[in-house]
Design goal:
heterodimer, A: mainly alpha, ABC transporter involved in vitamin B12 uptake, BtuC, two-stranded antiparallel sheet, 12 helices, about 5% strand, globular, B: six-stranded mixed beta sheet, 11 helices
Chain lengths: ~325, ~240
Amino acid sequence: MDMFFGLAVSAILLGCTYTLVAIGFSLFFGVMDVVVFCCGDIAIFGSFAIMGAYVASQSAGLFGILPFWVCVILLILIGAVFCAAWGLITHQFSIKPFRNSSELMPLLSTIAMGTVIKEVLGLLFKPAVNTISTAFGGESAVTVVSGRNPQGFPPLLLPGGTTNARYLIIIAITAAILLLLFLFLNKTKMGMSMQAISQNKELSLMTGINVSRVIIITFLIGGVMLAISGFLVGSYQKLMSFDDGAMYGAKGFSAAVVGGLRNTWGAVVGGMLLAFVEVFVSGYIPRGTAYSSIMAFVVVVIFIVFKPDGIIGDKSVEKV
Amino acid sequence: MSDAVANVLEVSELDTSYGRIPMLRGVSLNVPKGQVCCVLGANGAGKTTLVKAVLNMVKADKGTMRLEGKSMDSWPTHKRVESGIAISAAAVGTFHKMTVEDNLKMGAYYIDESLLRERLVEIYQSFPVLRERLKQRAGTLSGGERTMLAIARAVVNKPKLLILDEPSLGLAPIMVEEVFEIIRRLRATQMSILLVEQNAVKALSVASSGYVIQKGAIVFSGTADALGKSEFVENPVM
């Protein structure tokens, strides 16, 4: 039974990190009808930005001047600014120019944007390169990239506390963000406008919603959320690699699909389901760790085949 | 009174195109203040394109548009709505996952909370069907109720110009009757209405002037009486 609870906690933690990325997907999909494939990369960029800012502020001696928690909040804000900027850049350069073209175009261009983000990180945090000598000796003709040069994420989350306390805080932060998001979407005019655009774009224009402004704000908010998810991923994983974004993106997208794209709560349920499958497969099946991600994607395939609308999908097809 | 003030909406020499295919050609139209003006036309004649061009949802290639005498050519869609044009288009539907009440609130995007509450009370009086369904999702309404909601959503703003795009679309005869009863009531409040319809007989029963649009061009304009006696209405194949 102890093992069960341990696994459940790990699953919830993993689910928290997936959920936030998945919400990023469903927010963007809601207002743009486009799957923004670089969500995972933006989140990882956020955690690297926090990492970089940490190193910079340490050498500047900032931690000696300000209280620790103020520094942490400042670092997260820096990450949020970077991610919001990437969100905006993604919208301006890889989505907006393709408004009137086939919907496959933004699909490709956001994947390309993800590659750009990943390679920028790769340049800044260079993978280790080994050279091997040729059979004839002398100058090496081939370079081999060995290892992904993972970076240690700074211990910003409760460095003095126990692991369990740290986990509790990750869950609490996620819950707080979900609550804020819920209030924002349902109680503010901007949030209601986002929902309106997601449900009926033409009618949103007709009711006088400034659609292009709402879209830009959605990308800013989505970026901030991805930054926080990057912070949580870093605090949870401790080691980050520049190309982690692809996997997080794939998992986040899968969670969004399983839950039902467009639906924020679907993203939560989908993220948790995926994480539970992964963690329990690696916990209970011998040598399951190797198959955990595979099983998670099998779940996605099952959903696509049998329930393409997702768990909390949009079942009410409007009669005309 | 000058001409500019007598008309709520003035469209002159409007051209639009879809890609390289011309849609509207030289459309000119006036909606007089406090009256119902109808635009009749068959499917694909360009009625909805005209409506969307008035809201700048379809870009005009040429031509000018004025709202109460003010040129609105450079205004984006949301500015036109904010300035007092409201549209109810049956074919566009509702925010189906929101409640009826939230749908109405979205219609009142530009008015503040206290004014909105007053307006909603008025709306519930004129649309009793909606009051019973306030907390219900709009997607679960019947076709007739949805049309009522679309009209109510547009009039919450008390617009200077109300555009009704085919309000009778897909409705049972008894519901069509009810919708036109509402149009009559709105007309009694001196609201300026541009009514775009296929149902010529019904439209002419409420309108005081009208236009006929065919293949993207206006082929008739005049009073409702003259229009009723013209070949376009007597010969139903337009």
